[in-house]
Design brief:
Blueprint (H helix, E strand, L loop, with lengths): L2 H42 L2 H28 L3 H28 L1 H8 L5 H9 L1 H17 L4 H25 L4 H32 L1 H5 L13 H39 L4 H42 L3 H28 L1 H9 L6 H7 L2 H17 L4 H21 L6 H27 L5 H30 L2 H22 L5 H5 L4
Helix pairs in contact: 1-7, 1-8, 1-11, 2-3, 2-6, 2-10, 2-11, 3-4, 3-5, 3-6, 3-10, 5-8, 6-7, 6-8, 7-8, 10-11, 10-16, 11-12, 11-14, 11-15, 12-15, 12-18, 13-14, 14-17, 15-16, 15-17, 16-17, 18-19
């Protein structure tokens, strides 16, 4: 996989991820108006359980499948790659079938056990079909990512979300007369319908891909280097790789849950009322975290693209190509993360006012949390690089250490004058440690050193120029337009132009390498 193809794949997945996030927000707005707070409560109750059940198939398996397939293709073993996919598909179908059966046949038991309202039964039934098809999608997405063909994954994500919105809201509209419970259940079925449509798209791509491009793109299987793995060996390899990634995803969820428990309890001890705590926590999770997650869409996409690319070079023992890909991924991630963090820091109150129309509430939280864009992005990419080099448990260890640091720092700082910012500082400390530990391991594994001039100094210089642009342009636009929101939008656009123009002029990015590079 060339640098060009690596970056192209990352940008395709990032755009699809942003589109999916937008559609997700678009889904909740009309649904809220249609079924109200009670209906949204019924709609949302089963989702934590549903997400937990899918955490393995969504988080770990696509990465495992893509890595193993990419390794087989590095040795021109197409038959081996296809065999890995078919075994993975069968395994994930069984997992999905079991999960769907559990939700469908255990809905009443779940309601009784968790003491949920009886009307939540319909929401569980609506979701019950989704695990089967989401698991199938995971297998297909891992297959295409292993082939370094990101288009099907991106298109299926968008189709899945469109189906969820149109069918979920549409069915809710037609069933609202039957009662809130039925309407909430119909909205939940939107997730199942979207997953079915996503599978249809991927199956179509699979047959088209096998009939045309792949036959031309890849050479026939090289019998001399083909490695015949038993079905059990394939399953063992997939599980060995998928489990630590999945545990990492669960650990991230647990860290969020710890915040939800620790922040209120510590702030109450600090003399804050329940109402004040609710407002502060809402500003953290509902505003600051939401906005920080937007630029992280790119690092998530890059992480998905880099695993098969690294696995390909590592399996061929091509040290030069391996370091070249790591350098390209790191540089691109930093070039995206730095201005995103700076923009959120400089215009935090204005961005919150633009989106929520509630003045500057939460701006101070977003300003500090913006640093996490840098630490999470780089740490995530380094973790994926390690996974691609078979160091799958090292990123998990780093994340576990980071989680402990986060809890300890948050615990003590929440009682200080920082209040909710104590939790933010704890998060920053934790993810900074994760980034440093992962970098040390990458350096130790292959002797990689980050390129200071093009990957750090030039992006920092461009960020400084961008900061100056915001500093002068924003107040100037405010005085002339008399509109804070328009001034903010123009300032953001101007800052982006200044930043990327500086990147271009300083030649931080080698255009020949990134645009016209060959496989």
């Amino acid at each position: 996989m060339s640098n060009k193809k690596l970056l192209k794949g990352a940008f395709i997945l990032a755009l699809a991820g942003l589109a999916a996030k937008f559609l997700g927000v678009f889904f909740k707005i009309p649904l809220q108006r249609l079924i109200g707070d009670e209906g949204m409560g019924l709609f949302g109750l089963p989702y934590p359980l549903y997400t937990l059940m899918l955490s393995i198939s969504i988080t770990g398996f696509p990465a495992a499948i893509s890595k193993l397939i990419s390794e087989r293709l590095a040795y021109e073993d197409i038959e081996g790659a296809n065999r890995i996919f078919k075994i993975s598909l069968a395994m994930l179908m069984l997992i999905g079938l079991f999960s769907s059966a559990f939700l469908f046949f255990g809905a009443e038991y779940i309601i009784a056990l968790l003491n949920w309202p009886q009307d939540a039964y319909y929401s569980i039934l609506g979701l019950s079909i989704a695990p089967l098809f989401v698991s199938i999608m995971s297998a297909f997405r891992g297959y295409f990512q292993g082939m370094q063909f990101m288009g099907p994954t991106a298109i299926s994500q968008i189709v899945e979300q469109v189906g969820r919105v149109v069918i979920g809201v549409g069915l809710s509209y037609y069933t609202i007369s039957m009662g809130i419970g039925y309407a909430a259940g119909a909205a939940s079925f939107g997730a199942s319908a979207g997953a079915i449509l996503g599978v249809v798209v991927l199956v179509i791509y699979y047959f088209l891909f096998n009939q045309g491009p792949r036959r031309i793109y890849f050479k026939p299987t090289n019998k001399d280097i083909q490695q015949k793995m038993s079905s059990w060996e394939v399953v063992r390899e997939i599980i060995w790789f998928a489990i630590p990634i999945s545990i990492g995803g669960v650990l991230s969820s647990i860290m969020t849950l710890i915040d939800a428990v620790m922040v209120p309890s510590r702030l109450i001890q600090g003399g804050y009322s329940s109402a004040e705590i609710t407002v502060l926590y809402g500003q953290l999770t509902g505003k600051a975290v939401t906005l920080v997650n937007v630029p992280l869409t790119f690092s998530i996409a890059m992480a998905a693209s880099i695993i098969p690319a690294i696995a390909e070079s590592y399996s061929k023992n091509n040290s030069y190509e391996l370091k070249h890909k790591i350098k390209s991924a790191m540089k691109t991630t930093i070039i995206i993360a730095l201005p995103a963090a700076a923009g959120l820091y400089l215009l935090a109150p204005q961005i919150i006012g633009l989106l929520w129309g509630q003045g500057e509430a939460g701006g101070h939280i977003l300003r500090i949390l913006s640093f996490n864009v840098i630490f999470i992005s780089i740490g995530q990419i380094l973790g994926s690089i390690l996974q691609g080099m078979n160091r799958v448990y090292i990123p998990l260890r780093s994340l576990l250490i980071g989680a402990i640091i986060k809890v300890v720092v948050s615990y003590y700082l929440l009682m200080s004058s920082l209040n909710i910012l104590g939790a933010v500082m704890g998060s920053i400390a934790g993810y900074c440690v994760v980034m440093v530990l992962n970098y040390i391991e990458v350096k130790k594994t292959i002797g990689f050193k980050i390129e200071i001039k093009n990957s750090i100094l030039k992006p920092i210089m461009a960020t400084i120029f961008m900061t100056l642009a915001i500093y002068y342009i924003h107040p100037w636009m405010q005085t002339r337009l008399q509109s804070e929101n328009i001034a903010t939008l123009i300032s953001v656009a101007a800052a982006m132009i200044v930043y990327f123009l500086t990147i271009y002029i300083s030649k931080a990015v080698d255009l020949k390498e990134s645009i016209i590079g060959k496989r």
